[in-house]
Amino acid sequence: MEKIIVYGGRKLSGEVNISSAKNAILPIIAGSILCSEKCIIKNAPMLEDVFVICEVLKSLNSSIEVDELENTINIDNCNLKLSQPSSELVRKMRASFLVMGPMVARFGEFKIALPGGCNIGTRPIDLHLKGLSALGAQVSVGHGYVEAKANKLKGSNIYLDFPSVGATENLIMAATLAEGETIIENAAEEPEIVDLANFLNSMGANIIGAGTDKLRIIGVKELKSTEYKPIYDRIEAGTFMVAAAITRSKLKINNVNEEHVKPIIAKLTEMNVEIDLLGDSIVVDGNKILNPVDIKTMPYPGFPTDMQAQMMALLSTVKGTSIITETIFENRFMHASELKRMGANIKLDGRSAVIDGVEKLTGAEVKATDLRAGASLILAGLAAEGCTLIGDIYHIDRGYMNIENKFKKIGGNIIRI
Ligand SMILES: CC(=O)N[C@H]1[C@@H](OP(=O)(O)OP(=O)(O)OC[C@H]2O[C@@H](n3ccc(=O)[nH]c3=O)[C@H](O)[C@@H]2O)O[C@H](CO)[C@@H](O)[C@@H]1O
Ligand SMILES: C=C(OP(=O)(O)O)C(=O)O
């Protein structure tokens, strides 16, 4: 089993380039199912999750070539077949379930293993299923599988009880080839939803309103081939912004869309981190006396839950008391006990974490309990005195491309063993 070792206590400096977004490319690859022609995805991040979704499509007879040197994925779904991806593969990643909407839209039926929960929460799929039923599918769940059948999906009005990112994506894709018009209200507004809509529209879909809470999708008969470059990863950008702050260093972070990281900029600025915007780059200077802050995670444009763990690591190093409230996932504080091994002073009370900043963190042997928890431990390790040994780093590889090399280039003493 690979591990990451971080020797902490060094300042970082220089520039880092952000990759394309995991959470954008996964639904985009699933969305390619709607098209029987070729799709080329440029600047694709080479991540474990990307390889898994490609395997899911291959198991449906998609012809996919991943060019790791050129960061390009060539997808040809002209011979796609109605088949069932192995449950082992599907369970590896929540986002596998995103193939459900496009498969039903294209083949009129599909059966797939339940994606299962994961350690940040139970993560049900009821909103995806209610939406598919509203589009005319007969949905049944049993013995660990979900099956949806519809001769032809029909446009409908859908109101989501919660602006779920995945449900919004699945339903956009299902509605794209449905007959007539679909309205999705209380839709998720995340930048990755806009990117999926732009990708599908580039193939001839008719999706209006992405990025707002009301989407209008006018079904089309078929989609044409496209070449597409997904948006940059706002969570990877946020992680490096926090890296500058936690090591009290100055970093230039390239490939950042300011609009997408506004809630992170707002919180770091409130903490007294200095942030300068330079077009597609952002300069973050954390070499200041930082203030504690309170954070509440919310759907976009609120503060992203995917940045909560990294902020907890940072706040652990800031004198005073900060409170983090996690409103999206009911079990997303597992990094707290790992950070505590490094000397952090964190008390959990239901959905809130009270963090009292300590003078210094110290290196320890810890485990990545999920993807962003793993990132928070690398950040804490960079700031800590001594050596931090991080296990279960496969979680980190799901969503960060070349993480140790990116940190090495900016002066981080971090190795993979
Ligand atoms: C691949 C991807 O893009 N993952 C992101 C996506 O996950 P994902 O799409 O799974 O997140 P959702 O927005 O769907 O989930 C948010 C909340 O809604 C609940 N829920 C969701 C669907 C449903 O049918 N029923 C239900 O109750 C979930 O349990 C959770 O408590 O958005 C999350 C919230 O921004 C991010 O943390 C994930 O990084
Ligand atoms: C929770 C995350 O991803 P996923 O939804 O794929 O588990 C994440 O990217 O932080």
Characterize the structure shown.
The protein is 31% helix and 24% strand. It is built from 14 helices and 23 strands. The strands form six sheets. A four-stranded mixed β-sheet has the order 21-22-1-23. Strands 2-14-16-15 form a four-stranded mixed β-sheet, covered by helices on one side. Strands 4-5-3-13 form a four-stranded mixed β-sheet, with helices on one face. By secondary structure, the chain is of the alpha+beta class. It has helices at residues 22-31, 48-58, 87-90, 100-107, 126-134, 165-176, 191-202, 234-246, 262-270, 308-315, 334-341, 371-383, 394-397, 403-409; strands at residues 4-7, 15-17, 38-41, 63-67, 72-76, 109-113, 138-142, 145-149, 157-159, 181-185, 206-208, 214-218, 226-228, 250-254, 274-278, 281-285, 294-296, 321-325, 345-349, 352-356, 365-367, 387-391, 413-416. The longest helix is centred in the middle third of the chain and has 13 residues, at 234-246. The N and C termini lie close together (9 Å). A hairpin with a 4-residue loop joins β4 (63-67) and β5. The model has no long low-confidence stretch (mean pLDDT 97). α5 (126-134) packs parallel to α6 and α8 runs parallel beside α10 (308-315). The structure holds uridine-diphosphate-N-acetylglucosamine and phosphoenolpyruvate.
